[in-house]
Amino acid sequence: MAKPREKGKARRELGIVRYLRETRAELKKVTWPTRDEALHLTYIVLGVTFAFALFLGLLDWLFSQTFQQLVSVLTG
Q1: pTM of the model
Q2: Distances (CA, A) of 38 to 4, 24, 26, 34, 64
Q3: In the chain, what is the straight-line distance between the N-terminal and C-terminal CA atoms, in Å?
């Protein structure tokens, strides 16, 4: 008869093996993009990221200019 600790360890190992087997099965079901699709989507992500960075940088600059004007008016 197995000790309780050994039995729990065996169950845990079986759980890990089952998890890895199920993960592998799910990954086989995935429709992976082609190289061209992946590159196209990468360019879209980079373009949107650049556009938002530009927008946020401009917004930050506008807020800092407005804040500087407000401080200079209030301090006289």
Answers
A1: 0.59
A2: 50, 22, 20, 6, 38
A3: 88
Structure tokens at 32: 């992976």
Residues 24 and 47 in one domain: no
Domain of 66 in residue numbering reads as: 33-76
CA–CA separation, 61 and 55 (whole Å): 10
Residue 30, token pair as written in the block:
């995935």
Q: What is the pLDDT of residue 60?
A: 98
Residues 24 and 54 in one domain: no
* Same domain? 43 vs 16: no
> Among residues 37, 19, 15, 16, which one has the least CA distance to residue 27?
19
